[in-house]
Amino acid sequence: MNLLRPLTWMLLLLPSAAFGEWTPVPGKPMTRWAKDVKPETPLPEYPRPQLVREKWQNLNGLWSYAITPLARPVIADEKQDRRGQIAPDAAGEPGEAPTKWDGEILVPFCPESALSGVGKTVGPNSRLWYRRTFNVPADWKGQRIMLNFGAVDWDCTVWLNGRKIGDHQGGYDPFSFDMTEAIRPDGDQELTVAVWDPSHLGVQPVGKQHTNPHGIWYTPVTGIWQTVWMEPVSKGAIDSVVTYTNFHKRMLNVRIKWSGSQQGDICKLTILDGDRIVAENGGTATASSGDLTIGVPADDLKPWTPESPFLYRVYATVERNGKQIDEVYSYAAFREIELKKDSAGVNRLFLNNKPVFQYGPLDQGWWPDGLYTAPTDAALKYDIEITKDLGFNMCRKHVKVEPARWYHWCDKLGLLVWQDMPNGDKNIGRDKPDIERTPASEAVYRKEWTAIVNATKHFPCIVAWVPFNEGWGQFKTNEILDWTRTLDSTRLIDGPSGWVDRKGGDMIDAHIYPGPGMLPIEDKRASVLGEFGGLGLPVDGHTWLDKNNWGYRSYETKQALNDAYSDLLTQIPVLIGQGLSAAVYTQTTDVEIEVNGFLTYDREVLKFDKDRVQKLHARLHEPPPSLKVLVPTSEQEPQAWRYTTDKPADDWMQPTFNDGAWKQGPGGFGTKGTPAAVIGTEWNTKDIWLRRTFELKSTDVDELSLRVHHDEDAEISINGRLVNSLKRFSTEYGPAAIASEIKSALKVGTNVMAVHCRQTGGGQYIDVGLNELRWKR
């Protein structure tokens, strides 16, 4: 192989097979890329860009399929939400393959998807079967033939020519079987696959799948959902090439693992900048399997950043007795992620020894036509391109693991990634102890998380591992966070994202809707906002359902949505100045009945004004403003207010209004038990009206920002002029925007702040302060 050949020149061998009639299942939204899906060549791209070999054969395409009932049902009612009820081995052995097939399915699209051509839910009480034939190229003889699966959800057994070649449990990690011994000398080879998936009713990682989709839970995915392919390899093949960086020592380290080697085998490594050789090194194998780490020092290494995502090409070979027996292409990036204190002593997320505020969307990775599987590689790439184009530098891959090509595009385009572990088993509430998993459930979690980390830790885009989301499947929290660091110590550990913090990991992570907000800074961890926003807008003709769609807060027009988003984003710099290190907005696209995406589910409509969003996002990377408290809240010390619960005269918010008959009491006002409330005066009626005065020596202010905690709707005025109308409720204290023209209402001397808060149910609370922001010019 030519050392300098680009990766895009790799040889692609497609299977020869007869393809029948195939059409997508009607009735669901389709993306623009669905028309490019061809039954003879679905997802034809090389599926493992981090370890490329020249010869391979894609086995995607039309397979026969059948759905058969289990010998004994594992659950009485699949629609009941009984998480963690089904054990990993509940379905038993697959038994004999069916003699009658239901039709054809387009692999790698799951049968529940439109692009599969099937459109059927398999369910926990059934087993899904696949069958196809293929030929092995004649020039592969004498080598080991590996059968590779990108991902199969969840329990998979594989036969070749009636001979079992392996089984696997895990819905998100790639796996391989050596099928050499089962291959017939010539002619057609018959491949059979059986899959069982208990979906959300099992203890295994499942993400957002649900047998009864509703709310934030989506259509289940069963079976093969990533590329199936085969390749010839020698005995002594390279299994993985992983790179990691010591930025301070200007060292790029490359670790190569292999299996089947012999004493004296020589591994050689070359690192290239384009066609220029940067470094060469090598080593000799001393065992039948093992690993070799090669350090490449260089003063002129180019850092990888979101702004300049430079990738070095890597070429590795194995020689035996002077003959080359394996060669692979890979790539490497010179980048390092760290938790460090900035010049002010605040913990920040440092990329290449510089603090970088990480901001991006919650990325679910679902598709209306392919569910877990993007219709084409161009579609997969598009989500990353539009994310970058909007000015994000990060995304959080939410309770799903993507095909390797998705991470490859993040590497090439420059998008930082926080990688979630897909949740499974039972849930816990915000104030509850960790769940107690069964030994089988814990073993499944540890096995699959280990496989996910090992399969994706090559990709430089990944900068943080997220073992738990909120209270979903959360167990032995700090033990799991520490154990995750043993799997990969080169990245940050978020622990957990939202809800039930146990003081572990590198980040203290808040989920606040709509927010924004943050938890107080700490000495050992960075404060991050793992989820916020969720502003919704259904777009006619581009929704999963015609009605009853859902968002955390919904709007009727694009203008209202953009204004609300602007209000949220103008508050983020205040939080950055207070120590916030990262934020994640919900979310990239609409998903099924959720309509809180930047894009519609079919990716046809961008619901936000791009220019406006880009400017808002760019401001997040400027030096944050300094903050001066003009009107304190009652968080630290009770503040005196005049108040009444009887409806006052219409001019109650004016400076000239006489509030002498109102009661006086300390803030905040509300009921005990309301989240994050600091009760100074109990308020338990439907409405409350508040007034207080504050003094200003000068009206030369740069920018104003409220600090407020409201439950529920609140209208806030200064000197009789409405400055903000807040809907629904917050769960924390946080900033709220004030339009710049409000500054003209201020005056030297005495000013009046007036607040009306209305309560409809549940907890209730109101407290308001006012801050001045000064930006560095």
TrEMBL record:
Glycoside hydrolase family 2 immunoglobulin-like beta-sandwich domain residues: 242-335
Record EC number: 3.2.1.23
Molecular-function GO terms, alphabetical: beta-galactosidase activity
Coiled-coil residues: none
Protein origin, superkingdom: Bacteria
Region (Disordered), start-end ranges: 79-98
Name the record gives this protein: Evolved beta-galactosidase subunit alpha
Encoding gene (name): ebgA
